[in-house]
Design brief:
Blueprint lengths: L2 H9 L5 H10 L4 H11 L8 H9 L5 E8 L5 E9 L5 E8 L7 E8 L5 E8 L6 E10 L2 E4 L3 E4 L6 E8 L5 E9 L5 E8 L7 E8 L5 E8 L6 E10 L2 E4 L3 E4 L17 E2 L13 E4 L7 E8 L2 E7 L4 E3 L9 E10 L4 E9 L11
C-alpha cells in the first residue's frame, strides 16, 4: 500500500489507528512522528483538511546530505563516505568527484536510500593516480529536491618502494657484502637485508642505510660471522608508509677455510717425478700425482723452463710430458697443484736432458 493510499484509508476510517501507526513505522517514520501524524490526521479532527495533509506529507523537505571522511585511502583506490536522510521518500545517492574541487565532473553511484533519518552511504572508488589530491561530495536526490553535501578532499598514497637484490661481493670464509637497489618513490624508506641458510626461512635481518628521494639508490651492508664453505640466501627489503616490498632471493657461498701451511703435505708427497740423478730422456718423461689422505687434488699445471706444457684436471692423476722441441741441456720442471680446499702447492726439479742415441746405418 502506498503512502497516499494509507492516508486515504485512515481518513476514510478503513484503517485502524494501530494499523496506521504500524504501517507508518514500516515506511521508515519514527514511532514518535507516527503518533503525532495520527493525532494530526485522526478522522474526527477538523485538522484533517486537505491542506494539512499536503503540508505534512507532500510538501516535505528535500533530502539531507552530509559528506564524511573517506577511508582505506591507498595509491589507486579509496572508499568514499557520506550520510543521507531520505525524509520518507526514495532517494537516489551519488558521489561527485574529481581533481578540481570547483568542478566535480565525475560521478560514482551509491545505493538508493529510503525511510527517515540519516543513512550511512559508501562507495569504492578505483583507478586513481598515486600521490594525487582529489575532492568529492555526496549528493542526494528525491521528488522533493536535490541536496549536496560539503566538498572535502583527500590525497592518495604514493606508490610503494621498489627493491632489487644484487649479487654479493667480497666473499671470504666468514663474511660477505650484500648489495641491492631501492627506489624510495619520494618517501623515507627503511632498508634491510633478510638472510639465512634456507631460502624459505630468511629469519635474520641486517639493516642498511635509510633512503629517500626518487629513482634507484644502491644499498649495501657487510655481513659477518658466517661459516666457511656454506651457502646463504638473502634479499633486500624496502619499507615505506606506502608498503613493504622485497626483492628476489639470491644466494652466495662463503670461501672454504684454508689450512695452515704447516698442515699441508710436502710437495714430494704429492708428486712423483723422475730422479734428478743422471740425465732424463726428452721423449719419455712422466709425472704421477699421489693421493695422500685428506688432500683432494683438482688441478695440476706443469711448466717446463717457464712454459706451460700440460694441465691435468679431474680424476686423471698422471700425465706424460713431451720435452721434445726444448733445447738440450738443463730443464726446470715446475708443478702447481690446486686442492679442493682452495690450497695451492708448488714445487720444481731441475734435470739434465740426455742426447738421443744415433742408430748406425746397416751397410
Amino acid at each position: 500500500m502506498s503512502r497516499d493510499q494509507l492516508i486515504d484509508g485512515y481518513l476514510a476510517g478503513e484503517i485502524s489507528r494501530r494499523t496506521f501507526v504500524r504501517r507508518l513505522v514500516s515506511l521508515g517514520v519514527s514511532l514518535g512522528a507516527a503518533l503525532a501524524y495520527v493525532d494530526l490526521l485522526r478522522p474526527d479532527s477538523a485538522k484533517a483538511a486537505p491542506v494539512v495533509v499536503a503540508k505534512v506529507y507532500e510538501d516535505q523537505l528535500p533530502p539531507g546530505a552530509v559528506t564524511t571522511a573517506p577511508s582505506d585511502v591507498a595509491g589507486t583506490l579509496v572508499v568514499l563516505h557520506g550520510a543521507v536522510d531520505p525524509n520518507l521518500r526514495t532517494t537516489a545517492v551519488r558521489f561527485e568527484w574529481g581533481t578540481d574541487a570547483a568542478a566535480l565532473a565525475q560521478t560514482l553511484p551509491a545505493p538508493a536510500q529510503e525511510g527517515n533519518g540519516d543513512r550511512d552511504v559508501a562507495a569504492l572508488l578505483m583507478g586513481l593516480t598515486p600521490a594525487t589530491t582529489y575532492a568529492y561530495r555526496v549528493v542526494a536526490t528525491n521528488p522533493s529536491g536535490t541536496t549536496a553535501g560539503a566538498t572535502i578532499s583527500f590525497t592518495t598514497a604514493p606508490d610503494p618502494p621498489q627493491a632489487v637484490t644484487a649479487p654479493a661481493t667480497d666473499l671470504t670464509t666468514n663474511s660477505a657484502i650484500l648489495h641491492g637497489s631501492v627506489d624510495p618513490d619520494l618517501q623515507p624508506t627503511d632498508v634491510r637485508f633478510e638472510w639465512g641458510t634456507a631460502p624459505a626461512a630468511l629469519t635474520n635481518s641486517l639493516p642498511a642505510a635509510q633512503q629517500a628521494g626518487d629513482g634507484d639508490r644502491d644499498v649495501a651492508a657487510a655481513l659477518t660471522g658466517l661459516a666457511p664453505g656454506t651457502v646463504y640466501a638473502y634479499r633486500v627489503v624496502a619499507s615505506s608508509p606506502s608498503g613493504v616490498v622485497a626483492g628476489e632471493i639470491a644466494s652466495f657461498t662463503t670461501a672454504l677455510a684454508v689450512s695452515a701451511a704447516s698442515s699441508l703435505p710436502p710437495f714430494s708427497a704429492l708428486v712423483v717425478l723422475p730422479s734428478s740423478g743422471g740425465c732424463v730422456s726428452r721423449r719419455k718423461f712422466r709425472i704421477r700425482l699421489r693421493r695422500p689422505k685428506g688432500v683432494v687434488i683438482v688441478k695440476a699445471t706443469v711448466s717446463v723452463n717457464g712454459k706451460q706444457v700440460k694441465v691435468v684436471k679431474g680424476r686423471r692423476l698422471s700425465a706424460p710430458v713431451d720435452l721434445r722441441g726444448l733445447p738440450k741441456g738443463h730443464v726446470t720442471v715446475e708443478i702447481a697443484l690446486q686442492t679442493k680446499a682452495g690450497q695451492t702447492i708448488t714445487g720444481e726439479r731441475r734435470y739434465e736432458t740426455c742426447a738421443p742415441k744415433i742408430r748406425s746405418k746397416r751397410k
